[in-house]
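Key result, reporting period 2: structure in, sequence out.
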């Protein structure tokens, strides 16, 4: 047996090639023997040509196989995300909120690695975020594997400088949020493939993925200066009172634009996967709360709009009031006959319930529906939650809903309803998209212009001489309403004596016509705790001062100049008709 036969084991392929080579050599010999050198040359040319054709055919088959059946992007069931470029998100003044930046994916091909231990050691140090077992699977794979994506150019260069064979990179786009956790819940975030998962990224997913000519930036309604002030004050209040959660909002009452939205605790959308579900929860849109006395503004507005009462109407709050199955008392009992203004200033449950009884269930239900309080807030955010409302509107419902119990709504729904009370009576949709200056935003009329003016005065009266005093800022004519609602304990089937929702709904400035520039500011603390003062953490204690500080900080950004102090109801009569008076 020849050496070749020993090497190849006498395989059929080897024997076939051997016969063909000897046949060709015999053909060369016959050509030389016959003296026809041109035949010898022709045969050699044909032989070389056949070799080239065979080589190109082999390369073609290999390239086709690689294109159709390659495992380049596969590894551990994970594929590198191709991603679709998204337009930049910017605030109303053009400040960058979200942007696609070039990053790199790292791949490992174990077939090209020279020293497995060296590669394992160096990559473990360079990529501590990669789980050791994931790295080990990639090193032991039998194909090129995608290990990790989202590497910055600097990170890629540092790893590339290690000179590790078998380690390579592919360019990819990654969504980056340069302000980290600022406005995280409103902006939202995307997955690795460029699909919006939350916030504006989800709400405007298709528009941002198809931005049109020139890949123009997509402007949102928020102002990062206002957002920063709101988040700062909300965070300080949360640090002081240690709530379970907290919410802050600022809206333009005429356009419905959300100028700032904050939910606490927050998260960094650049690392959304590392945040807890509680931190990612947008409490402004996705959570509903039984908010208590901030609802009294709605009851007052309905009473005024229906003609049931005037600001000078009186209510006997000297004794507890029985309505339906409930006995209604006041948190800070006055034991007095109160005007409507005083009912609002003292946040009297008795006076408000008597007004609610005079309004009646049918009219109350109709107005609450018209104010958008019985359905999810109309806003682009898909997280907007459905409220919890009474199944039957009767005296029992009125006994609690008139002062904010027995109904749970989202902060966004509350803000939309308040906007209608403050802008002249129109229910405009909320929006997280910038409204261009001069755009006329319309909506159905829900209360009269006169009612809107009177609500503005009621809210101003509450800050000048009621429970909202701590929110007063000289020169800005702030108005507002405190809210403190005990939380219902489903397991105990009763309201808690220790857990509450404390809030403050404010507007500024309250002077001038209803068409004047005006803004709504809201802050809510879910289960705040007593601070070192030991005071009961009511809305007037935990939320009103923080709202006042927010208003003082943002007024210059909104172009609101200091003005003379506005004293409400200066032309009001001394007394009016008694509504529901007496037992």
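The corresponding designed sequence is given below.
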């Amino acid at each position: 047996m020849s050496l070749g036969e020993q090497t190849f084991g006498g395989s059929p392929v080897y024997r076939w090639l051997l016969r063909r080579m000897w046949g060709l050599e015999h053909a060369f010999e016959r050509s030389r023997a016959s003296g026809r050198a041109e035949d010898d040359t022709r045969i050699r040319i044909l032989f070389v040509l056949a070799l080239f054709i065979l080589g190109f055919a082999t390369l073609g088959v290999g390239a086709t196989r690689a294109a159709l059946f390659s495992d380049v992007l596969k590894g551990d069931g994970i594929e590198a995300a191709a991603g679709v470029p998204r337009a930049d998100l910017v605030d109303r003044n053009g400040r960058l909120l979200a942007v696609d930046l070039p990053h790199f994916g790292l791949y490992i091909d174990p077939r090209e690695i020279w020293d497995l231990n060296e590669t394992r050691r160096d990559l473990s140090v360079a990529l501590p975020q990669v789980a050791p077992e994931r790295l080990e699977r990639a090193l032991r794979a039998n194909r090129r594997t995608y290990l990790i994506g989202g590497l910055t150019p600097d990170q890629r260069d540092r790893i590339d400088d290690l000179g590790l064979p078998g380690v390579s990179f592919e360019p990819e786009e990654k969504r980056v949020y340069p302000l980290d956790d600022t406005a995280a819940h409103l902006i939202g975030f995307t997955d690795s493939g460029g699909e919006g998962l939350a916030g504006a990224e989800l709400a405007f997913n298709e528009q941002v993925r198809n931005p049109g000519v020139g890949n123009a930036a997509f402007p949102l309604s928020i102002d990062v200066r206002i957002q920063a002030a709101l988040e700062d004050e909300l965070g300080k209040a949360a640090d002081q009172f240690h709530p379970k959660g907290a919410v802050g909002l600022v809206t333009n009452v005429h356009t419905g634009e959300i100028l700032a939205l904050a939910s606490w605790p927050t998260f960094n959308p650049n690392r959304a996967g590392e945040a807890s579900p509680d931190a990612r929860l947008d409490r402004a849109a996705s959570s509903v709360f039984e908010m208590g006395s901030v609802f009294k503004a709605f009851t007052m507005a309905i009473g005024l709009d229906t003609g049931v009462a005037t600001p000078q109407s009186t209510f006997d709050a000297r004794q507890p009031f029985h309505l339906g199955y409930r006995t209604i008392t006041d948190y800070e009992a006055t034991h007095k006959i109160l005007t409507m203004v005083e009912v609002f200033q003292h946040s009297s449950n008795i006076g408000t319930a008597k007004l609610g009884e005079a309004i009646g269930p049918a009219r109350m239900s109709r107005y609450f529906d018209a104010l958008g309080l019985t359905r999810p807030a109309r806003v682009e955010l898909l997280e907007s939650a459905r409220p919890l409302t009474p199944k039957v509107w009767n005296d029992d419902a009125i006994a609690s809903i008139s002062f904010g119990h027995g109904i749970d709504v989202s902060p966004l729904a509350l803000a939309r309803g308040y906007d209608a009370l403050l802008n002249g009576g129109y229910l405009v949709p909320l929006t997280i998209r910038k409204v261009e200056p001069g755009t006329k935003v319309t909506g159905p009329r829900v209360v009269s212009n006169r009612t809107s003016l009177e609500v503005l005065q009621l809210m101003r009266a509450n800050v000048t001489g009621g429970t909202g005093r701590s929110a007063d800022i000289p020169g800005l004519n702030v108005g507002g309403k405190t809210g403190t609602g005990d939380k219902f304990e489903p397991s105990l089937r009763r309201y808690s004596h220790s857990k509450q929702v404390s809030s403050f709904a404010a507007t500024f400035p309250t002077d001038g016509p209803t068409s004047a520039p005006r803004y709504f500011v809201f802050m809510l603390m879910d289960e705040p705790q007593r601070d070192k003062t030991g005071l009961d953490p009511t809305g007037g204690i935990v939320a009103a001062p923080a709202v006042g500080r927010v208003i003082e900080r943002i007024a210059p950004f909104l172009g609101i100049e200091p003005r003379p102090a506005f004293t409400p109801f200066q032309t009001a009569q001394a007394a009016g008709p008694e509504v529901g008076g007496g037992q």
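The domain at 79-217 is CATH 3.90.1310.10 (Penicillin-binding protein 2a (Domain 2)). The chain is about 35% helix and 20% strand. This case is discussed further under Risks and Mitigation.
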